[in-house]
Design brief:
The complex is a heterodimer. By secondary structure, chain A is of the alpha/beta class. Chain A has a single domain, classed as Rossmann fold (3-Layer(aba) Sandwich). In chain A, strands 5-4-3-6-7-8 form a six-stranded mixed β-sheet, with helices on both faces. A two-stranded antiparallel sheet of chain A has the order 1-2. The longest helix of chain A is centred in the first third of the chain and has 26 residues. By secondary structure, chain B is α/β, with parallel strands linked by helices. Chain B has a single domain, classed as Rossmann fold (3-Layer(aba) Sandwich). In chain B, 38% of the residues lie in helices and 26% in strands. In chain B, helix 1 runs antiparallel to helix 2 and helix 2 crosses helix 3. The chains are: A alpha/beta, B alpha/beta. Chains A and B meet through helix 2, helix 3 and strand 4 of A and helix 2, helix 3, strand 4 and strand 5 of B.
């Protein structure tokens, strides 16, 4: 039984990843070329979700994808949803509304007036919290958020993002006891787009090169 | 609307979101009542009731509009909830204290000429709302209306009016205060 359900979810999730890829292409959120990231590394693709707030129906659909991941990959009952500003907070809000779970969020800057605190919302000692962000790269902002929630008494075992960019986030979070879940991994998403012709002809080469480097470097997962 | 407003006033009192005491506010003025609604989304049913009232005000009281603009992280949950209820686009105008606000003041987009309604949880002096309005106007969008959940009646209405913006609120602080006791925290939030 366990094996069958796991396999069924794997298939459903693979379809969700493809649907997500199609949404990103439709929104023009996935761009190909040569991009220099804030870390200084270069990337053959860039994800820009700034059009998402303009399409409430799409935001709702994406929130449902997060909820599906939560329902299938963790114990969802009793969870509190924590948003990571700036981009993660609207997504976390949509997730909390769809799943009818309480929302909290991590403060972006220490509050100078009023009471000093790192978390907004109701968080009691021992509360189980799932972190929500849009993307995971090295996992730095998720790690900081996990620390802030834990220092405020919450328990953090899971983080969910839309796309894992596979730049070490999964491993870095695992070391801190946080399991990173993603609706899709970037390699899966790009592989499917390459197969179905969703990548511009002049960019196929650079994406293939990127994916093959990924595959040869990947073994632990 | 009358019933939903008294229900919302009740939520704000019951949850301890309006507290008595003197606090140093944003701009250094002190006020007898502290209003902090940021824990509201931690109570899904209350949050739904409050955002329904905001959605109703937006859909019936402010005319046709293209987009909702929430102010900062504090208003992001309200903004997203109302956007989903009305199926209207939103944008978040970041507050100046955020690290990246100088790089890009918006989370989302604004289009030339579209009519944008400002949305925030609380209006005090109106300075924050007026700043957000000038950012939105700098992007070529139109703003003539702001909607808040609670108007603390500390001058926002007059200041915004001078910027050509009409302020609407679900509740005014004076309407929530029934008596001295009722204004403060009655007990721990349940």
């Amino acid at each position: 039984m366990y094996g069958l359900e796991t396999k069924l979810w794997a298939e459903k999730k693979s379809v969700l990843g493809k649907e997500l890829a199609a949404i990103l292409v439709r929104l023009g959120a996935l761009r190909f070329g040569n991009f220099v990231l804030t870390s200084g590394r270069t990337s053959p693709y860039y994800i820009d979700l700034r059009l998402l707030p303009s399409y409430p129906g799409v935001l709702e659909r994406i929130a449902d994808m997060y909820v599906a991941v939560m329902e299938n990959e963790m114990e969802i009952g009793g969870l509190k949803v924590a948003g990571i500003p700036t981009a993660g907070l609207p997504l976390a809000t949509a997730v909390s509304l769809r799943a009818k779970l309480p929302l909290i969020y991590v403060r972006e800057t220490p509050k100078l007036h009023g009471e000093m605190k790192m978390i907004e919302g109701i968080l009691s000692k021992g509360d189980a919290v799932v972190l929500i962000d849009d993307l995971a790269t090295t996992g730095g902002s998720l790690l900081k958020a996990a620390e802030a929630v834990r220092m405020s008494g919450g328990r953090v075992e899971h983080a969910v993002v839309l796309i894992d960019r596979e730049e070490g986030g999964f491993e870095n979070l695992a070391k801190a006891g946080v399991k990173l879940h993603a609706v899709s991994r970037i390699s899966e998403l790009l592989s499917w787009l390459e197969v179905v012709g969703g990548i511009p002809a002049d960019q196929v080469g650079v994406i293939r090169e990127y994916l093959s480097a990924r595959r040869s470097g990947e073994n632990a997962r | 609307m009358r019933d939903s407003r008294s229900g919302i006033a009740d939520i704000l009192r019951r949850r301890g979101f309006i507290r008595k005491g003197s606090y140093l506010l944003h701009l250094g003025n002190s006020s007898e009542f502290y209003v902090d609604l940021r824990a509201l989304p931690s109570y899904p049913d209350d949050f739904d009731q409050v955002t329904s009232a905001l959605a109703e005000l937006l859909s019936t009281g402010v005319g046709d509009f293209d987009r909702i603009a929430g102010i900062g992280d504090g208003a992001a949950p309200l903004t997203v909830a109302v956007s989903l209820k009305l199926q209207k686009p939103y944008v978040i105008v970041k507050k100046m204290e955020a690290d990246n606000s100088f790089r890009d003041p918006l989370l989302g987009e604004l289009n030339q000429g579209e009519r944008v309604i400002l949305l925030d949880d609380v209006a005090s002096t109106g300075v924050t709302l007026a700043c957000a309005a000038s950012i939105i106007r700098a992007f070529g969008a139109r703003v003539d209306t702001a909607v808040v959940l609670v108007d603390r009646e500390l001058g926002a209405s007059a200041l915004l009016s001078a910027s050509g913006i009409r302020l609407f609120s679900v509740l005014k602080l004076s309407e929530i205060q029934v008596d001295g006791e009722a204004r403060g925290r009655r007990g721990p939030p349940s």
